[in-house]
Design brief:
Blueprint (H helix, E strand, L loop, with lengths): L5 E3 L5 E3 L3 E2 L7 H13 L3 E3 L7 H10 L8 E6 L6 H15 L4 E6 L7 H13 L3 E7 L3 H9 L7 E5 L7 H9 L3 E5 L11 H10 L3 H11 L3 E2 L6 H8 L8 H8 L17
Parallel strand pairs: 3-4, 4-5, 5-6, 6-7, 7-8, 8-9, 9-10
Antiparallel strand pairs: 1-2
Helix pairs in contact: 1-2, 2-3, 3-4, 7-8
InterPro entries: AKR (IPR020471), Aldo/ket_reductase_CS (IPR018170), NAD(P)_OxRdtase_dom_sf (IPR036812), NADP_OxRdtase_dom (IPR023210)
Family: Belongs to the aldo/keto reductase family.
GO molecular function: oxidoreductase activity, acting on the CH-OH group of donors, NAD or NADP as acceptor
């Protein structure tokens, strides 16, 4: 098990279970160096979005990395004001151009914009059929959004990327996704390091000679959750990747599960200021 360890989407495409998220990394040198160092360390999964405004730097780092394109799993997303069928067609082309890629490995609807996401999804189905996106999915969708989308879709989402960490376990959404063979992916998997001083995490870190962040990332992995921790620092990227040489016991997992408080860092999908 390593950074090349993958989960299999319901269409057979494989996604590395640990990737690099680049939200809030500045376009230019900052994101370029972060992606380049991650790829040099062995990361093969990079997650960006049009909203992040750093696709060009991500693309340049990929081109300059020396890693063959087919070994790198690249995700990007359509933002809220780009949604709707025709707008999404344009948004996708813009992202492809900025990334300087021929195809996207995973294209996501960033948020479930009311009255728009079903039309947006039709565009994603087209990208998938045309081979421009190897996989398609959604982000920040709750069960009722997913149910609504699936009812009227020809292709089911392959991934739902949501805010997920021990204090926001998203049990219902995870259960829905499992029942519908949709992989769950966690953004903000270590909750921006907001509660790494929690005694449970601290004790487990001591027990395994790991950091609290590594304990959380291992918890994600053992829950079959893909995660994309963000770090611009090579040392932290290396640390985040060192989660495959130990295993939490079922008691440890339960102790971490008990941290759930339905505590969000980001907005609630039903209350987002669309």
């Amino acid at each position: 098990m390593s950074l090349t360890t993958t989960a299999t989407l319901h269409n057979g495409i494989e996604i590395p279970v640990l990737g690099l998220g680049v939200y809030k990394m500045e376009e230019g040198e900052s994101v370029y160096e972060a992606v380049k160092s991650a790829l040099a360390l062995g990361y093969r999964h990079i997650d960006t979005a049009s909203f992040y405004q750093n696709e060009e730097g991500v693309g340049k780092a990929i081109q300059d990395s020396g890693v063959p394109r087919d070994e790198i799993f690249v995700t990007t997303k359509v933002w809220n004001d780009q949604q709707g069928y025709h707008n999404t067609l344009d948004a996708f082309d813009q992202s492809l151009e900025k990334l300087n890629l021929d195809y996207i490995d995973l294209y996501l609807i960033h948020w479930p914009v009311p009255g728009k996401y079903k039309e947006t999804w039709k565009a994603l189905e087209k990208f998938y059929r045309d081979g421009k996106a190897k996989a398609i999915g959604v982000s920040n969708f709750l069960p009722h959004h997913l149910d609504d989308l699936i009812q009227e879709s020809e292709i089911k989402p392959m991934i739902n990327q949501i805010e997920l960490h021990p204090q926001l376990a998203q049990t219902e959404t995870r259960k829905f996704c499992k029942n519908h063979d949709i992989i769950v992916e966690a953004w903000s998997p270590i909750a921006k390091a907001k509660y790494l001083d929690d005694p449970t995490l601290q004790n487990l870190a001591k027990k395994y000679s790991k950091t609290p962040a590594q304990i959380i990332l291992r918890w994600h992995y053992q829950n079959d959750i893909v995660s994309i921790p963000k770090s611009v620092h090579e040392k932290r990227q290396k640390e985040n990747a060192a989660i495959f040489d130990f295993a939490l016991t079922s008691e440890d997992m339960t102790a971490i599960d008990m941290l759930d408080q339905d505590n969000r860092i980001g907005p609630h999908p039903d209350h987002f200021p669309y």
